[in-house]
Specification:
The chain is of the alpha+beta class. The chain has 2 domains: 152 residues, no CATH class; 110 residues. It has 2 helices and 16 strands. Strands 1, 2, 3, 5, 6, 7, 8, 9, 11, 12 and 13 form an 11-stranded antiparallel sheet that branches. The longest helix is centred in the first third of the chain and has 53 residues. It is elongated and about 135 Å long.
């Protein structure tokens, strides 16, 4: 009787190699599928975020510029005025703030040497005008039959001044101090003495692209002095921080030279006798910039852009 001898079974080398090759192909396929899905997901998120931001920036800029009460002025990224039609990093203008306000004319008439004005607003009107602030501009119409700058008197509320207010029922009265006299000393602006006329208030506003360590920020400023360079450190609203960032660089810098044309999105253009502000926004979401930047050389781009020609609907001079 032969002793028990179990049979020995094993894979051959060829079978092992075939199995390893099949496993490698399977793993590579799964990896490729996961990798492609990850890239597509990140790309889609970036594209959607860029599209959302560029639409919001355009809508907000358009909403503000439609209220421009005069021809806008171009600015550079430091807040200084730029001559010509652009392109430029920013634009400043005065936007319609509210009205009508009732301006009381003194018994002696409205003197050109006046340095204060008294405005009254009704708090129960359908659209209630807001209270004026320093740097606001009071536009007084000298006639109800004609409009335009030649038929207006403008007075700027002095920066840093105190506005005194009083309430009588539904009426609120504001006494404001002016930055300079209304006109020449000794002259009387032609109004009927002891009467009342209407006025509107317009407010300085600006949209400027400013380079920072977070990115190129599109900022909205309001209530500032129109003279001199705009102080970019003053209070502002951030519309987006993703203006025209280069695809190859995910590290923004305040020292950005702003030579890229996309970082200067504003130009002025005259069409049919009216001045349009052309806003050309190019935005790229930066949340996945480091992951995607090598792939955006020649494979695809997550930039999103919108061009908008924006007229002013409130400018009485055009």
């Amino acid at each position: 009787m032969k002793p028990f001898s179990p049979s020995l079974r094993a894979f051959t080398l060829a079978e092992v190699l075939v199995a390893m090759a099949a496993a490698t192909m399977l793993v590579a396929g799964i990896y490729g599928l996961l990798y492609t899905g990850t890239v597509l997901s990140v790309k889609s998120l970036s594209l959607n975020a860029s599209g959302r931001d560029v639409r919001l920036a355009t809508d907000q800029a358009q909403n503000l510029l439609l209220q421009a009460y005069d021809v806008p002025t171009l600015l550079d990224h430091t807040g200084a005025t730029v001559s010509g039609t652009g392109p430029a990093s920013g634009v400043k203008f005065t936007r319609y703030y509210g009205g009508p306000y009732v301006l009381t004319i003194p018994v002696t008439g409205l003197s050109g040497s006046s340095t204060s004005l008294t405005l009254t607003r009704d708090t129960t009107s359908l659209v209630t005008p807001g209270p004026p602030q320093p740097n606001d501009i009071i536009v007084i119409n000298t006639t109800i039959l004609m409009s335009g700058e030649s038929n207006q008197v403008r007075a700027t509320i002095r920066e840093g001044s105190t506005i005194t207010s009083s309430t009588n029922g539904r009426r609120v009265t504001h006494t404001v101090q002016l930055s300079k006299p209304l006109g020449d000393p000794g002259t009387v602006i032609p109004y009927q003495a002891n009467s009342a006329v209407t006025a509107v208030v317009i407010r300085p506003a600006a949209l400027v692209v400013v380079p920072t360590h977070k990115g190129r920020e599109l900022r909205y400023y309001e209530s500032f002095s129109l003279s001199g360079t705009l102080n970019l450190q003053r209070k502002h609203t951030l519309l987006t921080d993703k203006i025209a960032l280069p695809a190859y660089n995910s590290d923004p810098s305040p020292a950005d030279p702003m030579t890229d044309a996309n970082a200067r999105p504003f130009t002025l253009e005259k069409l049919f006798g009216r001045t349009f502000v052309n806003a050309r926004f190019r935005i790229r979401d930066t949340r996945y910039a480091r992951y995607l930047h090598r792939r955006q050389y020649d494979e695809y781009s997550t930039f999103s852009g919108v061009n908008a020609a924006i007229p002013s609907k409130c400018n009485p001079n055009e």
